[in-house]
Amino acid sequence: MSAMPSTPPSDDAIGADRALVAEVLSGAPGAFERLVRTHQGLCWHVIERMVRHPEDTRELCQEAFLRVHQALHQYRGDSALKSWIAQVAYSVAKRHLERRRIPLADVPEDTEGLSMVERVADGFDLEQSASDHEAAAHLHAAIDRLPPLQRTLLTLYHLHELSIGEIGSITGLADGTIKSHLFRSRKLLRGLLESHQGMFAA
Fold first, then answer.
1. DSSP conformation class of 78
2. Are 118 and 179 in contact (CB under 8 A)?
């Protein structure tokens, strides 16, 4: 799960996204269902990582795709459709947390020393840390202890392999803020995991 920054979507990928959107907007049979099947995993991961409640996640995913359907005419094909849908999902989950008065995140420290953050950003290999069942259980338990935003950023960066720029377009956060959150989250995870019998000593 140690992610390298992803490359921008290809012209072919953007073209396929635009074609699917055009089919949905024209009312082609099964087109919207195909869109949902393609992107429901990403939508679920974004919302579930934010709210951590299965019933709420299910309802919010339905709300997110309803909003996607209502606003799909606004998609211009300037970015990947998955990023646009993830932005809708993030917005829906964020408003849910705000209504519940649940803090979105710890405020990250200033981005001074960001060159160090960038240099060691992938120094903690999540995949290696989850190389067996017991380790994976500790890892997921540790991730669950992070605030909603940090959980979500880790998921987008490592699981869905989105670039910092793509995550910024989804969350509205500056690149430096995202990098700071990722760095602090990895540092916390390292400490939590290394406390388990020294299994993950650097």
1. S
2. yes
> Tell me, what amino acid is at 110?
D
**Amino acid in position 24:** V
pLDDT tens-digit series, residues 118-171: 333 444 455 554 455 666 677 777 788 888 999 999 989 988 889 999 999 999
pLDDT at position 198, please? 53
Global pTM value = 0.76
Sequence spans of domains, the chain: 11-99, 114-194
Q: What pLDDT is attached to residue 178?
A: 94
Token reading at 176: 């430096």
CATH code of 11-99, in short, is 1.10.1740.10
Q: Rounded to whole angstroms, how far apart are CA atoms 142 and 139? A: 5
Which residues lie below 8 Å from residue 152, measured CB to CB, with a gap of 6+?
A: 46, 49, 50, 90, 93, 171
Q: 114-194 in CATH: which number? A: 1.20.140.160
CB 168 within 8 A of CB 178: yes
Amino acid at residue number 164: I
Instruction: Tell me how far apart the alpha carbons of residues 55 and 79 are, in angstroms, rounded to a whole number.
Output: 31
The tokens describing 119, both together, are 């240099």
Q: Region of 163 please: left (phi>0), alpha (psi -120 to 50) or beta.
A: beta
